[in-house]
Fold each of these.
Amino acid sequence: MIKLTNVTKIYKTGVRALNDVNLTIEPGEFVYVIGTTGAGKSTFIKLLYREEKATSGKVEVVGQDVSKIRNSKVPYFRRNIGVVFQNFRLLPKKTVFENVAYALEVIDTPRAEIRRRVRATLELVGLEDKVNAFPHELSGGQQQRVAIARAIVNRPKVLIADEPTGNLDPETSKEIINVLLRINEEQGTTVLVVTHDQKIVQEHKRRTILMEDGCINADTSLGGYDL
Amino acid sequence: MKELISCIKNLPKHFKTSLVNLWRNGAMTFSSIFAVTITLLLIGVISVLALNVQDISANIEEGVRIYVKLERSIDENAENEVGKQIKQLKGVASATYFSKDEELSKLIDKQGEDGKELFESYRDDNPLGAAYEVEAKDPTKLASLAKKIKDIPNVNSVNYGGDSTQSMVSTLNTIQTSGTVFIVGLVIVALFMISNTIKITITARSTEISIMRMVGASNWYIRIPFMLEGMLIGLFGAIIPIFVLVYGYGALYNYTGGSLMSSMLVLKAPMPFIRDFSFILAGLGAGVGLIGSFVSIRRFLKF
């Protein structure tokens, strides 16, 4: 599903963010990516959704060589991937329903189908009673659940979550991780969670990748933070 | 191409989205529309004035004639011969013939009741010669044309008001050119201001655009609602200026009776003029809004 071969990323500023990284993630896996700030976690996932291009090496996501995708085709490529951010990134002037529906509207889904799928997805994340609220009327945890709903409503093969619990309290964080685990189990979506949250990684042990100085320092299916 | 077609198919939906966005971005929308209103009002009022000044100066210019008096002694054939020669000169737009009798009648009419009897006695032995009223194609070349006419045989005198007419004509010409430059300059400034306003509204929403891209919206899918919003802002911004012009100019026209001071200073009739001008204002607002958003959003759609 995701395959990195000898990937190096050097920014224009000269910063060497990734250094000869090799990695394979199989379909249906649930993977944590952990590491200190500046270890290259963000660069790693930015390469996956083509926000950045690798300086050298090959990045393959859902069978496509990411660096070969033409700029104009990037939106089409991104429909295969759902992304959730620490700061939610919801469209501020759209309601919960419209935010989630937007991901379907852009791929010309028929209206009836949009209604059906948005409702089903909001139920999955537990927000069916907030359909007509605007983002600023919701709590952080609720906003993050809307963001997750938007990311998965078009059934992407990969879901990438960049510090999804970074702005949330422990109780809410637990809920969010549970939602992500459910998506992984029920829909078979490959889920990648970048996190700092030791508690979460300990509690739900899954494959964990530790990054340090642009390299993968440990990769264990045992899970846990003490690598 | 495919995505463009799908976006055109989605145009009604995009249109609805734009209206909803305008409504939900209330304060931003209002201030942009207000800025466009002020700009269009400015160009509207000033252009209407400038166009009228141009029209009036063109009118005055057209009114300038060379008055050619012929010798008294010559017969009708010789008079016609002079007319022919005048018409052959380069730069002559028209030459109207007045016979000796007509000239005397004009003179008598000018004298009023008192002089009428006195001058009527000249009917049998007319002291005046025939005349031509010559209209120049280019009023700025009045003097040289008058000189050429003077050289034609049997021409007694030529009168065009002398240097003062000449300098008036060149002043009017300056007014017309500078008026045109002024309007063009103003339109450019307006275009700049409107597109800048649109740019600000788009920049304020750059995160929104990046989110849309994140979710997989194609560039055209993002762009079209913004372009429609820009167009609507321009269009809404034109409403008040159009109202002001239609009612304001109509009132001015009625109040002055269509002319200022003398019949030479004629205002443009409101009907086709203001209507056409309103369309131009609305088109200007909408067009600049549309193109301005297209240009401004490009920056945020680069991968």
Amino acid sequence: MSQVPDTLRYTSTHEWLRPEADGSITVGITDHAQAQLGDLVYVELPAVGKALTAGDACAVVESVKAAADVYAPLTGTVLARNDALAGAPEHVNQDPYGEGWLLRVAGTLPSDTLDAAAYRALTESA
Amino acid sequence: MPADLLLKTPLHARHLVAGARMAPFAGWDMPLHYGSQLDEHHAVRAAAGVFDVSHMAQVDLGGPQADHYLRRVLCGDVARIATGQALYTCLLNEQAGIIDDLLVYRLGADRFRLVLNAARREADLAWLRAQLAGFDAVLNPREDLAMLAVQGPQARGLTDPLLPAALRASAANLARFAAVEQGHWLVGRTGYTGEDGYEIMLPAPAAPELWQALLQAGVRPAGLGARDTLRLEAGLSLYGHDMDDTVTPLECGLGWTVHWEPAQRDFIGRAALTAQRAAGPARQRAGVVLACRGVLRDGAPVLQDGRPIGHVTSGGFGPTVSRGIGLARVEAGAGGACTIRIRDRELPARFVNPPFVRDGALHVALPPLVEV
């Protein structure tokens, strides 16, 4: 059973969003996603300042056997990216909602994100 | 394919108990990993891991002309191995294309055990049976046997006390690539990881107990994910990726498995191979290492001076070398710096001679890491 924190919002493509106090939104991939992928060995993130469009591929997470696109869960601009992942991609596996964060984005929370219950239902039926 | 149509090894229930993430492989429901394939890889290099390889096909061959027959169908010569020795070699077709790579153990003057890739079981048996005509020899697929591979610097030391008493001393004294038989058990000092260890062939009902005893002794269960990263670092070829029946041993780095002497031994494929050797093969196997962060992928084009010169046949990431690595088939004579096209970008890389890792340590010069 994967972890699905109640305080976050989710997408059907297995990204999570966390609105921060300063108005920015932190983004990552869910525990369900990291378990499906297995051990990650490489994470490719967009540069700070890059414009993101909701639904477009914006990052890549790679395990030994497969590369998976991460889709921008909102439209906005990259304010920060988790550069620690370059040397320690395993943070995404070990702490997907904490140390494994991918990006912090300037943008607004889309109205069609899922709450924890809806995301949980989605992953359990898969 | 639905999971209930996949074949199960005698250890299937143990894998589930150990928390394995299962995946289909060659029609079998196999453990991909037990939580972390990277941890399993490192455990084998540092200590010991155990793999269930019961899906592989074990086939006995016996009879007055068994020796004669194998000297015809294999490009390596079993006359070179004594009882209790193993030979890694290839089964070729008339065009010298590789039907499979395999280990053959000599169990006696006219008795052998072949270990074949699971994915090639049907193709191999069809070919072997067809070639038997005219030879006084009998093939006997051993579906009653399981196989465990225990690999790593501590593997043999941890395994020896758990073997049947009658086998213990002989196993402990085995030279590399030697094997000892006792009843229905066959223990070889062989493996597919680049580390020391055993491959243990045993009656299926005995496998779960040995598995459990190994785990209790501290041997880490390891899945097919780790098996693949270990063998890739060790520069060991994988059938279906690094070679297939359109590739000859000379084109994929397996020329050393061909025994040309004695010249009168007319093994299947000899004529085609002789012609290719005389002309010089147009393609060769090469190791490649990325000079930047990333993971190599099967099929990725390899370029030099902007020109495609081949492709990656086994691509991945070596956890011990901590770099993207791969095996490739490229134009003969290629060497030095190259680039590899991955997801529409050309990444800097370098040709190296495998193995990437030997005796647990880096064996190639890594190009300095560059940011791209």
